[in-house]
Structure formats: C-alpha cells, structure tokens
Design brief:
Length: about 900
Amino acid sequence: MCLAADFGGILHWSQYVAAAGILLAMVLSLIGLTDSTASSGLRQHKLLLPLGLLVLLAWMQALPLPSGLIGLLSPGSNAAYSTWLEGLVPASEQPSIHSVSVSPFDTRHVALLLTFLLPLAFAASIVFHARNRLTMLLSAIAITGASVAIIGFYRKLDPTADLWFFTSKSNGFAGFVNRNNAALMLNFGMAASLGLLSWRMMALHHIELDDPDFEFNDLLALISDRESLIGLLSSITCVAGLLLNGSRGGVVAALFGLVCAFGYVRPRRGLIGLPILAVVIGISVAILTVPMQLNLETISRLELISADADTLQKDGRLLHWQDGWKAAMAYLPMGSGISTYGYSYLPYQSQSPGSWFEHADNLWLEMLVETGLPGVVIAVLFFTILLSSLRRLSTSADPIDQGVRVAAWYAIAAVMVSQFFDFGLIVPANLFVALILATAVVSRQVASGGLQAPTLEDEDDPYEAMAMADPEYAMAMAAAEQEAETATESIDADQSAAKNASTRGNKIKLQSTSQFGRLTSSVSVGVFAVVIFLLSAFAIPGLKSDAESESLVRRIQSEYAGMKFRPEVLEQVESLLTEDLNNNPIPETRTLLAATQRDRGRLAETLEWRPVSIEQAGEIYAKTNLNERGLKYPPPLAAMTRDRLKSILHYEDAWNTSIAGIATCPLGQASRATLVQLQSVLEPQPETSVAVKHLAKFYSTEPIRLMRLAKRAFMIGDFDSANTTFHDSIALRPNLTSQLMPLFRVNQDTLPLQKVIPNESRAIELAAADVLLWDTPDNDFLRHAATSIDCGRASNLAARAKCQALLSRIHFALDDIENATQTGEEAIRLMPDEPRYRVQLIEQFLITGNRTDALRHARLGREAIPKDKRFQQFVDRIAEAERNELLEPTLPQDTNAPSIESILD
C-alpha cells in the first residue's frame, strides 16, 4: 500500500526502501526452511528460473561489449552509438565498446530493481506455502485495492487535497500518476476479493465460483458470513473505483477478468463460454471505440456528441504502435535495453501524433522493443509455469486453494488485456503484487499436490464437509477418532506382530529416504537462498546511490526557480551536481548540470553588460534568453579586457557537459537541445547543424516543437535546416502558416516561400492571403498558389466560396482578369447571400477600370440583397464618375504631342 501511494513506487528512494524491506523479509523467511509446511524443496521456487533469466538479460544489456558484437545482437543499438553520434562526437572519442542499451544507466537501475524480484519470490514462496497465510495475502491485496479506490474518491471530492502522495495531474488517480496504472491495482484488489468470496463459497456451500452449477444468488448468501465481509466490501469499492477513475482499459480488463474467474473461457463451462466470450469482446470494443455520454468519468471520457471524444481511434496509440513495431524490428534480436523505450523509438517514428511517448501504452510491444526475442521467451516460460500450476491447483480439495485459483485467473486475464493498452505492470507497486500472487499459486500447487479432490467413494466420509471448510481441523478430528477406535479393538497378537514387523522395515526405509531427501532439498534451497541474498546485498548499494542522485536532482529542481538569480547558490549547485555525476553518471543529473552552467553564464553576461540599476539588469537578463536573444554576444566589455569573459567559460562548460551527455545517452533530446540554445552565444559549430537535424527527426510528428526548433535554427543562421524544419512543421499543421508569415515577410531572401510552404492547399491559401497584403507581393509564389490551391477539398460551401474569393484576388493581382472574374463569380454562386464576395469583386473591377462589369454586379447585388446599402452606393459612385466624364470639356488634341506609350517607354 505504501508503494501504491508513492505514485506507484516510481521514485528511486521508495524503491530503495522497498528493496531493504524485501531483503529483510527474505532473511526472516529463512526460518521456514526447517518447517516442512513452509518448504517442500526446489519445486516450489520454479518461478525463480524465468525471473533469474530476466535479471541476467537486464545486466547483459547494460554490459559494455565490442561494437562489432553489438551490431549482431542489436543493429539499432549499434546505429545509435555510431550513426547518431557522427558529427556530434569526434570519431576518436566515439566508443568502440558500448552496451546493447541505448541508455545504459537507466537499464542498470532497472536491473538493480529487478534483482530484488528474486528475494521477493523466494520469501513469498516460503511464507505462502502453508494455507493459513493465504487468506492474509488475499485480504491484504483486496484491502490495498480498496484503499487506492478510497483515496481516489477523496481526491475527486476534494481536488485541493495537498497530501504528499497526491498529484495535480489530470490523468492521475489516488496516488498513481496514471489512471490506467491505478486501474491495474484496482483489478488486483478485485481479483483478491473474488478469491476470498470463492474460498468462503467453497467452504460453506461446497460449490466453486466457476462450477457449471454456480448461481449468482449463492454470492448473496455470503452477506451473512463475517469472514466474507472483506471480500464483499473490497469488491464493491474496487468496482466503484474502476468506474470513477476514468480508465477504459481497466473496465475492459475487469470484464475479461470476470469471464476467466467464472470459468467461461475454460473447460469448466463447456461451449457456453463461446457466446459469452463473443459478447464480452463486443462490449470491450464498444467501450474502447464507441463514444458514449454518461456521468461516470470512465465512460464520460467517451462522449457521444463531443468532437474531442478520446477513444482508442483518436488517442494516437494505433498510429504510434506502427512506429513501435518498426523500432522492435530494428533492435532484434536483443532489444534496445530495459527502460529505454522513450529513446529507442525516436529514430524510427513517422506516424506517432503529439508529444513524446515515454512508454508505448502497450506493455507487450514495449517489452519486444526493449528485450527482444529473449524477453518473449522469458515471458512465455513464466506464463507456462504459472498456467501449469493453476491447472494442477484446480484438483485441490482445499477451499482456500480454489480461492487463490480464482483470484489468479482474474488477475492473469486483467493483466493480459489491460497491458495491451497500458504499461502498469512495470510500476513497482503493481509488479510486486502480481509476483507475490503468482508465486503463491506455484508454491501452493506444490504443497497441495497430494491433496486431491474427493472421489465418489469418499462422498459418505463424515469429515468430507468439515474438510471442505478446514482440512487441518478435519484431519486432526479424524486422527483422534481413529485412535479411539483402535484402543477398543482386539487384534490378534501374532498376526499383528508379523504384519507390523513387515511394514516397520518399509516405514523405516521410507522414512530414512524421506529424511535424506528433505536434507538434500533443504541444502539446495539454502544454497539458492545464499546466492540470492548475496546478489541482493550487491544490488542494494546501487539502489541507494540512485536514490540519492534522484533525490538531489528533484530537490534542486523544486527550488531552482529561487536559485537561478543567485550566482553563489548556482556555484554550490554546480559543485554538488558535478560531485554526484562523478559518482553516479545518470542522464538527469547531467542535464540539470548543463542547465545550471548555462544559467550561470546568463547571470555573468548580465553583469558584463554593466547595468546601472536593478531594473536595467532585469531588462538585460530577459534579453539574454538563449531561445530568443535580444542582444548580440559578446558584450562590449570583451573589447576592454584581455581575459576571457566569465560568461563564455560557463557557456563552454554547458556545451562540453551536453556533448558528454550525448556520448552516454546517444538518442537523448535534452543535450542536443542545449547545443542548439548555446549556438546563439558561441562561435559557429558544425555540431549544431547536426543537432538540429537530429531533433527535427525526433520531433518529426510534433509541429509546435518543430516550429520552435526552426526558429532557433533561423536565429543561429542555419537557414537550410530552418527552411526544412519550417516546411515539416507546416505540413503537419497548416494553420501554423499564419503565425509564421510575419517572419517570412521580412526575410524573403533567406526564407523563400516556395521552398518553405509545403504543397498543401490550406497552407498555400493562408500564405497567399498574407502575401497579397505585402508592399511588394511575391508574384512567383502567387502564380504557384493560383495553380496549387484546390477549393474542391473544402468540406462545406462556405469554405469553398471563401477559397474561390481568394483565388479571384490572386488572379487580379496577377492581371489575369478572365480567371479572376470566373472565380469571383463562382464564390458568389456558392454563397449568393454573402455580400462580401460581391463587394470584393466590384472593388476589384473598379480598381482595374472595368466599370461595366462593376455596375452589372452592383445592380445584381442590389436586387439580391436589398438591405445592404453598399451596392446602391457603388451604383451611385459609378454613375457619378461617368457623369463627371461627360460634363468635362473636351480639350483640343495636339497632334505634335508625344503619345503616352512613348512617355512610358
């Protein structure tokens, strides 16, 4: 529950505390190795095999290897350390030995965290081997899920709640940053609740939840059972939480979980499961794709009428998955490294809409990209062991085993379905719960392997009903009764002695073998325990170091707004970050260090401009913004001193830090962006042009970021990159053309319109409308616009008419009177009740001296729209002009005067 409250356990310090707790739990669980009810040998630890392979894979991905070998293991990773470093890192400094991971420090951290899955699985296998602790496990998971729902309810009722684990993110729920991650925990709580209810039903009514004879009114009978209260209340709370938190995928996962929990997709229900499965799939598709309009947030996010309905078809995942698949193919067979998806897909994106995808919103696709084929094999092995154990556990006669089985089926279905649309299983809170539940299934299957369901011959057993409720108590009562019966019987001494003598030897032999086997098994398990403990002890200092680094970065970031105007404080911050970076070079620390060095340069530069007042210093500081500089660098002080300016030293430090960041995280965006910023104050560097091209690829589906990048490229004089990036930005969002036209108007030489404006009708329309207002219109572009604008693409008559009117203005500007008249009249025909198109055409006729057509359209407008007085004014104006010409005296012509043509020539 603590991890669930801590944003799902995503903070490094909470992971470190959790790891310490897991290690302590493992040490305490070792006591159970001497207890036969807690340890049955190595078989109960089968899940350690796939978990160990996963940990080994993570460490191998973070291990430096020769680049030639990396090219075979992961061509995409090799390209990241070669192709994407060319032009940024000198060839002599490019690494010849590097890891498979494109962000080795992120992969190393996750490898450290995954190492603690081994002691967690080991301890859980021992603790939950005995039946008396399984109810505690199910109750704890159910209460955790219900607690998440209750916190979410409170947060909805009081959005101003300021507790430390609440966030202000609109897509968060309870303590989770992401509502879908929270929904997975709610589904785990629902699974455990159903497991508790199934246990009580089996114990009290001798019927399983997925039995063909099950009826839902059997669940109502549990209301009077005190031990069922936790399951009932938790299930109700979790269902309410799923409906309120806004996760569509969580609801769909719950539907499939219920279907599996009730056995409708397994042989227990026969062919009846097929139509039910079809109905569930249909409902799920409707929830994910069909808009609705109800009050509960999970469903109201699919509003029927709203144009902003955020369904699976519109949220961008389907498009992004295409890029994710291309990335997965590029990194086969070994993947790009665990926890690197946010970087690894960037070179291969072409369809992803919107902002950066830190995760794929599809855990199985993300797993394929990051872990490649070995990850697929490990996942298949894990689920094979788990499903095999579930199948064997179904033969157990113990009601609590049936409860665990039902909970596991629900959880498996919920995970398989929900993670197709989310990544919640990689959140530590969810991951630990899922692993503990899976380990309990495997361990209990080994423990109850000899306790089979009763046969027909056992139906008359007087303790059968008691065994269904509490097997241990029933066995004790049966043993006591057997001893009483044996004491009253008279047994033939000779036959008994002979029989006892013959069986005693066998019993002694079997007991001896069993003791030797248990000893051997205990030693083997003990060896495994020592190995796991040593691995964990080796990993925990790394988690502690990462926690300290992240804590330092987060503290500085939270207080940075008040620090960046104090040079002495920034100096201390730089010293702290540099020291931490030497001990633990994580990307976030390096990024913050470069930002600190850059801001130290701005403060030093502000003083170098010699301000005479605080107000002037503030104005100068604002103009030293590296994104939109208002001052040329360097300050005049540079010509008055022989020593290098302090500002340039800080700027160069930021440059070098960013270059080092690219070398360690070759697909990082932040370091490249810093290089582009610094180019406005440093001497022209070839690395900047390369960084702009790389960022244009990384931002290739984000028009706003592309536009900002293009402006920076233009500001530093990289006009070729600026033209290309402006073109790409407008191609993605044509309406941005209007915002950029003022920049194009004053920079026609360096930003040629025909090269920048894409061949897209809407963009050309907006650009042409602005060009017509220029003092000196670009006629070449207007001629291009006249042939490129497609008015037929407009979705309604009003838009088509507006487009035709614009074409008319363009043709008039090009002196193409025939086409101008034709398109102007077409605009009037499309919208005859709109007076502005008639007025525009009449004014154009008057400008060109065509009074005849102007008078004709003025009279037509007067008849069509009599309320508009402008048309009568046009008629009067034309009549007045003609009257003046008639009344003017005719001057005698001078035959010797030169002609107008000769004067103009």
